[in-house]
Amino acid sequence: MMKSKAWYKKQWKRKPVQITRYVVQTVFLLFLLYVGFQFYQFYLHFESLGEKPFVERPSAVEGFLPISALVAFKVWITTGEFDAIHPAGLVLLTFFAASGILFRRAFCSWICPVGTVSGFIADLGKKMFKRNFDLPAWLTWILTPIKYVLLSFFIVMIITMPTYQAQLFIHDTYNKISDVKMLLFFFTIGGIALKFLLAVFVLSLFFRHFWCRFLCPYGALIGLGALFRITKVRRNQETCTNCEMCTKVCPQRLKVHTKKAVTSLNCNACMSCVEACPIKDTLNMTVVNKKVNKWIIPFGFLGLFFLVVAAAKVTGHWHTMITYQEWMQLIPFANEAGH
Fold first, then answer.
1. Rounded to an integer, what distance in angstroms lies between the CA atom of residue 146 and that of residue 152?
2. Cβ-contact 218, 66 below 8 angstroms
3. What digits encode the pLDDT tens for the residues 204-247?
4. Distance CA 220, CA 266 (A)
5. Can you give the pTM of this predicted structure?
6. How far is CA 98 from CA 63, 200, 219, 259, in A?
7. What is the DSSP string of 223-272?
């Protein structure tokens, strides 16, 4: 049944930030689907040895190469050499990781495609089972460290890798076509990888954002910025009625109604709790303990994101140095390339 115009106006008045967030998430998801389709067309041109029409490679695809970007970051800080193979990947990883200091995990709640899809899956589960479920506290304690263990593995691997090996990796054939290898991986996925994805899908139907909360090392990396405690949601205990609306809407299942300040590394700065609170000025986003407008964090994050991308393009730190001729030599033999 179609909703009335008055209903939509009421929803906008109640939660304008959340509606804006859903729109932004959807736009970014559609954009990245377009990026994926464009990259597939790019791949087909070279795979067919030029028979299919040529399409420019979208540099945004490098955002899906975090391991390559981590290696490139090591080389950058140790030698000053900025990655010319996947520069956009390095720009994006560096910005998203640093953004966690001021904007918490706004990346996860506003533009991450995995987070968006995970939310859609949870909504589907809620329609199917009339609710999303909460894991027992003891199981949450057991599962929460997993993403930090995974993150530690990658960080230790990068730190212990000699700089010359990191430089060799960046210019290695495998890294040059790692985006193509990723594409082929998902086209031919099966076995353990497929079973793992199906398991995460099923778990996400029951437990909202299961991947994001327990398994995502990228989100764990960004969340480390919260250790500085510059930005956090604060609760006024004197005006709080303990209605628990804030806790009920939190996508990370944080017990917001029990906190004086939300300092959890899992906070996505999505502003759901702030908008759900029925008592004015009981929940507020703060920066350096100063109350700020609820739009500041999301708009600040998005504005700075677009500024960084624009600056990278203008300064020549966005597009790869790999030439058309080199792509023609590499991509037709992508299946044969190994580490």
1. 10
2. yes
3. 999 999 999 999 999 999 999 999 999 999 999 999 999 999 99
4. 8
5. 0.93
6. 15, 28, 12, 26
7. HGGGGG--EEEEE-TTT-----HHHHH-TT---GGG-SEE--TT-----H
